[in-house]
Amino acid sequence: MGQKPGGAGEDRHSRALYVRLYWALGKLRDGVLSTRSISSRFGVSLRTAYRDLDFLRDSWRVDMEYEPSTRAFVLKGDLPQLPPTRLTHGEMVGLLFAERLARQYRGTPFEAEVRQAFEKIEPLLPAEVEVEGNHLDSLVSVDLGPAHVADPATFRTILKAAMERRVLRARYTSLSANVTKVRQLHPYRIFNHRGDWYVAAFDPGHREVRDFALHRFAEARALAKRFVRDPQFDFAAYKAQAFGIENAGAVAGVSQVILRFSPHQSRWIRERQWHPTARLRAARDGTVTLELQVVESSELVRWILQFGPEVEVLAPASLRALVAKHLVAAGAQYAETFGPADPNCKEAK
Fold this sequence. Notes:
Helices cover 38% and strands 23% of the residues. It has 349 residues and is α+β, with helices and mostly antiparallel strands. It has four domains: 12-75, Arc Repressor Mutant, subunit A; 89-137, no CATH class; 152-233, SH3 type barrels, CATH 2.30.30; 255-338, no CATH class. The strands form three sheets. It has a five-stranded antiparallel β-sheet with strand order 7-6-5-4-8, with helices on one face.
């Protein structure tokens, strides 16, 4: 049985040793391993690096040999059965969630690297951990919802333009305007929202920062021309004024939105933090008032409409009128079925 580098009271030194050993195994499996690479990677002495190799060979029975031509060690056979890795239940759950959440990198240049990283970790886990992981996998799942897959080449181009602060020339389709046109953008920040990738970019044509979905770029090319990023731009503050992904920008401004929910719907409204600025006030009649400091967007309107008669917009007046307009239009579509004021037209249970 393989010897463990640490006892029951494994300290920081032992944990650092584990990291070096597993990294060294990965290098051996991929090709070659040298003491200098261990020393350079982890900032340890060459003597410590040689001790690590002795431990791999003598305690973990790793069959490797030194090649003078490359001045490095190579793996002669397969990796042996390694001693159990001591992961707590919480650490195993964390690893499982990390693998699930890493799937949001699909459609990016990092997708292959993330997958390869987990493929390298899996063989190093002992059977005891693999069994527990499979058991947890049958009990826990993470659903990121239906997400669009961005083109990896487009993602790479936009990321490079943002890093080098180069103007991005792109052909982009706007669904709200239902038009495709060529734009020149200044990419500020790439971010993921509910599984989809976006870039917050300054649009000189509209003189404001807007969000662009990466999957709607038909073409993207970084120009030689560089842009100067607005030093006043704060991404956290920029997103805080939006309810979801849609952001009308600085032109529209932020409004105080006040919504009153019925006693029935209030049970669910109280369960979530709907927005960083959200404030809830419960009344004695069972209703709940939700206050938000957000931009009035079509996304906000759609969210309100899903509650039907269970919510009333108290402010601002412009939002109240817009929601009422949508409800009247929706009711008109069913007038022939129930009549404009048929008392039998009730919400289905």
